[in-house]
Each structure stands twice: as C-alpha cells, then as structure tokens.
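thought: user wants a sequence for this fold. calling inverse folding tool.
action: design(structure=
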C-alpha cells in the first residue's frame, strides 16, 4: 500500500512539473466568464488493499460514479483553478469473507477459505454520496473542446447504504446497512487524459470497515483502491 501511495504522489508531482512546460496555442480568452463546469461519469475496477491474512478478491469488483463539478478558475488564462462537486458512487467488492448473523443476532465474519462452505457469489456493496474537491489544470479555451487535463484532489464520501450478498450451498444470505461500515470514506483522486478518454484513480485514506469488524482476532481494516476511466461532459 505504501508503494501505491508513493507512486500516486510521484505521478502528481511529475504531472505538475509537466504542466508548467506546456504552452497553449492561445493565450487570449475572449470570454472572461469561461469555465469548465462538467458532469462526470466513471467506471472503475475496485481493489481491496491491506487485506487480512488469506483474504482474497474473487471475480470482478466494479464501481460506478457520477456527479457534477463546479469549476472556479484562478488565473487570467482560466486554464488553472479548483473544482467542487457533488456526486453518487456505487461500489461492489467480491471477496472470500462471509458476513452473517450469529446465534445472538450480531454480525460476524469468517474466512471462506478456512471453511467447507462452497459458494458462487460473495460480495459487499456500498452506496455513497460524494463531494470531490479538485485542483485543475487543462489546455482548453472557450472554443476548444479537445484538450489535455490533469485534475487531482480529494474526495469525501458519506455512506447512505450498504449491503452484503452470499450465494452458496447454504442458500442465499443478505444483510443490509451493517453498522461496521465507516460512515465517512475519503481519499486522494487523480484524473488525467485527453479529450474523452481520461484515466482515473482513487486511493482511500481510511478503511472501509471500522475496527469492530473482526476476522478472528484480526481487524478487517481494508482500504479501497479504484482505477478506471472517467468521462467529462460539458
């Protein structure tokens, strides 16, 4: 996880230095009120970092993210500024941790790799209202819609719902709104690309589950790392 964070920060620093060397074709903005307000839609592959021993992901874990970002330019060229937005995120994580209610009605966790339980599906899902904050650089002008961009920043999400779903030889088991999920989830973001195609990565700074979620005597303090494509619509 430290390697990923180092790589992430190195990329941000490199991108910032690179952006200073780029000279735009036009340095004159006709409309002083020009801004890049945008709707966004992203599709990501979700990884679980710092998993407990013998915990692994199974299948494809996906994320869908959409929202709106208000652009606030900070310079006369209006190619550098900040963005503040509001959005919604749906995330699923396939793994081998079975979530169930024990004989006292409390939520408990076991590692399916250490059991004789066979299964075809096992995952948990989170539904978040998110507020992204971005430091934004781009080569756009008021009449140029194909341009390079580098947006980096921070995103805070509030958990509005959660669920788990298991399908196996003991039947189908579902749980919803488990209290062990952290209500607030936040992390670093980076989006970079040209025109329609933009790479996107999110690196969480706090675990998905609280310290109350225990697998044996070990806390299930897994972190989310999401990467994929993000599309911006003016």
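)
observation: tool returned 234 residues.
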């Amino acid at each position: 996880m430290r390697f990923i964070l180092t790589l992430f920060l190195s990329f941000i620093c490199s991108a910032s230095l690179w952006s200073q060397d780029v000279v735009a074709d036009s340095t004159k903005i006709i409309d002083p009120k020009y801004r890049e307000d945008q709707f966004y839609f992203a599709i990501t592959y979700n990884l679980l970092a710092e998993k407990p021993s013998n915990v692994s992901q199974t299948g494809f874990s996906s994320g869908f993210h959409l929202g709106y970002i208000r652009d606030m330019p900070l310079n006369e060229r209006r190619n550098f500024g900040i963005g503040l937005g509001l959005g919604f995120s749906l995330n699923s994580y396939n793994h081998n941790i079975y979530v169930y209610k024990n004989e006292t009605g409390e939520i408990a966790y076991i590692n399916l790799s250490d059991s004789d339980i066979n299964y075809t599906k096992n995952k948990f899902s989170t539904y978040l209202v998110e507020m992204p904050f971005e430091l934004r650089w781009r080569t756009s002008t008021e009449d140029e819609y194909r341009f390079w961009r580098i947006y980096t920043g921070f995103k805070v999400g509030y958990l509005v719902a959660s669920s788990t779903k298991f399908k196996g030889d003991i039947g189908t088991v579902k749980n919803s709104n488990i209290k062990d999920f952290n209500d607030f989830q936040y992390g670093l973001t980076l989006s970079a690309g040209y025109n329609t195609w933009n790479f996107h990565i999110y690196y969480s700074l706090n675990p998905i589950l609280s310290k109350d979620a225990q697998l044996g005597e070990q806390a299930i303090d897994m972190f989310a790392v999401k990467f994929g494509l993000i599309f911006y619509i003016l």
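thought: summarizing for user.
answer: Here is the designed sequence. The helical segments are 2-20.
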